[in-house]
Design brief:
By secondary structure, the chain is of the alpha/beta class. It contains eleven helices and eleven strands. 38% of the residues lie in helices and 21% in strands. The structure holds flavin-adenine dinucleotide (FAD). It is an enzyme of class 2 (transferase).
Length: 311
């Protein structure tokens, strides 16, 4: 019984839904147990310039469209992407640009911590995971997703499918746009961007002027201090516009509550979420527990909408 099931499975033809296999001759597919007719396989023809134009025409259209964004999110880690998901779903009328310095999205969220796979989130962050439809083990006060990469890839695929979101990756924010009112009050009014590879070579190349994106609200989710982290907090602190307080020592219980509660507009026009906040508030580090990143992102979406309506 068991072996016949295995044999049937082994003999069953593989299929790619919608694939035009064997010129539509499915009997041939069944007979050979192959998806395509491999010996005579060929792709639809294309000219190289069509590939270039397919990419560049869309990218430059997006650059044009998002040069004036409603909201810019800096950093596509767990906090930034959670924020983007809630914001863009709730407000399909808003243009939301995400700027990510790395080629890959996800920040420190492809592993659960210490290079282990599983990802721990304390309740009530499970509500967000249910919304995304990801399976998890319920351990009482916390849940465990079998792999952090499952979380971040599911979340990013949902965010990227939203029509009002554009991810500019391999692009870093290397400065902020500010405006100074007659009263002397300063507010953030957008971001200054550059290709990350260009930003990394300012010391040995010249003529590398940046690009800009204007936005009513900037949400900074660049993580704690590191080679690229805590960017907006550090930039404003360097200008004497914001006081920087370095991340405190590890205390999971205090740290997660502090990050979620403290999520706010830290400077006019700039909302801060995720671990970057610890560089602003000196809140504790928390180690590999991610509920606070998710719910800080959710909280940041709410705050950003209030700021957006105010400005
Ligand atoms: C070395 C190390 C130490 C860690 N220590 C802790 C800890 O102490 N406490 C803790 O809770 N977790 C720690 N973690 C785990 C985990 O990585 C973070 O908590 C979690 O990923 C933070 O989520 P986040 O969304 O706030 O930021 P991140 O996951 O760090 O995401 C930030 C994103 O912003 C991008 N970015 C940064 N600067 C810019 C810029 N200028 N322009 C555009 N994009 C930018 C980054 O590329 C990144 O993708 C650590 C991870 C590492 C690798």
């Amino acid at each position: 019984m068991g072996s016949s099931t295995i044999t049937e499975t082994q003999n069953a033809p593989l299929s790619l839904q919608g694939a035009n296999i064997f010129n539509g001759d499915s009997s041939l597919a069944n007979a050979t147990n192959a998806v395509f007719d491999w010996p005579s396989f060929e792709f639809a023809p294309i000219r190289e310039s069509e590939v270039s134009r397919a990419m560049t025409s869309r990218y430059f259209k997006d650059l044009d469209k998002y040069a004036e964004s409603d909201i810019v999110i800096v950093g596509a880690g767990s906090a930034g992407l959670s924020c983007a998901y809630v914001l863009a779903t709730a407000r399909p009328d808003l243009k939301i640009a995400i700027i990510e310095a790395n080629v890959a999205v996800g920040g420190g969220c492809f592993l659960g911590g210490q290079l282990f796979s599983a990802m721990v989130l304390r309740k009530p962050a499970d509500e967000f995971i249910k919304e995304l439809g990801i399976d998890y083990d319920d351990e009482g006060n916390f849940i465990v997703i079998k792999h952090a990469a499952l979380f971040i890839t599911t979340l990013s695929s949902k965010v990227l499918a939203l029509p009002n979101v554009k991810l500019f990756n391999a692009t870093c924010v290397e400065d902020l746009i500010t405006r100074t009112a007659a009263s002397g009050d300063v507010n953030v009014a957008g971001v200054v961007t550059n290709w990350t590879l260009v930003s990394m070579h300012h010391d040995d190349q010249s003529c590398m002027d940046p690009n800009t994106i204007n936005a009513k609200v900037v949400i900074s989710c660049t993580g704690h201090d590191g080679p690229m982290g805590a960017f907006c907090v550090k930039r404003l602190a360097a200008q004497g516009l914001l006081k920087r307080n370095r991340m405190g020592c590890l205390d999971m219980n205090r740290a997660e509550d502090a990050i979620v509660r403290g999520t706010r507009e830290v400077f006019p026009g700039l909302v801060c979420a995720g671990m970057e906040l610890s560089e602003c508030d000196s809140s504790n580090r928390m180690g590999p527990t991610f509920g606070a990143m998710v719910l800080s992102g959710v909280h940041a979406a709410e705050v950003a909408l209030k700021v957006y309506e105010r400005i």
